[in-house]
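Data availability (excerpt). The following record was deposited with the supplementary files.
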Amino acid sequence: MVDVEENIELLRKSGRFSSEEEFLEEAVRALLEKRPELRIELAVEQYKTGSVSLNRAAEIAGYSPEEFKSILSDRNISRDIGFLEDEQRDEYLDGL
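Predicted structure:
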């Protein structure tokens, strides 16, 4: 069995990566390039948690905003649309 942490440390020591975080960033980027369906999963989850806008999620997934809306609809994920009351907006912004 491959010891991932040991391999990360060996690659870091080789000078190719300055940190485990740098290694993981490149590994995730490569994984998303190899498995584009995971980009959709990532975009949906980021959108659901509110960490990205619909447009940004669509960009991450590699789709237009209209196509991404359809993906959300197919997954029964509702979108927050409309305007917030002043108090709701202030609470939302404070949470960011």
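Summary of structural features: Residues 1-34 form one domain.
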